[in-house]
Amino acid sequence: MNSSNGNGSMSTASSSGAWNGRDQFPAGLRVLVVDDDQTCLMVFEKMLKTCLYQVTKCNKAETALSVLREHKNEFDIVISDVHMPDMDGFELLKHINSEMDLPVILISADARKQVVMKGVTYGACDYLIKPVRIETLKNIWQHVVRKKARNTF
After folding, report:
1. Which CATH code is given to the segment(s) 26-151?
2. Model's pTM, two decimal places?
3. Transcription regulation among the record's keywords (predicted)?
4. Which of 14, 53, 57, 109 gets the most CB atoms within 10 Å of its CB?
């Protein structure tokens, strides 16, 4: 999937391997990353690919929401920046939570307690402060496992 039309862009990069959904480090976890900063998107893509995750990146929240709606069940987790011009990460999180069953991690350089708590209150499974360490990204699959486990009971 690749598109670019001035209304936001989206690109996909994948690595070899497939995740079987069991409680182990999964190669092939399908991650949608949303950030209006192209440099951040490139850094996240590189780090996530190093973790052997399949990465799709969008530079606008509205584009990401369209991609999620058009390709249901093709993503395991969403990582979204909080502060974006078209739609903030909180609004994107509300849409995702109301329309689909995906864990969402919010990311931001904004570490103010009220912003972090807003993310948790809105249903984010985690709130990461930029710059994010690769060690943290290696463990995001655990959010997917927890979400799937909660939904089986």
Report:
1. 3.40.50.2300
2. 0.82
3. yes
4. 53
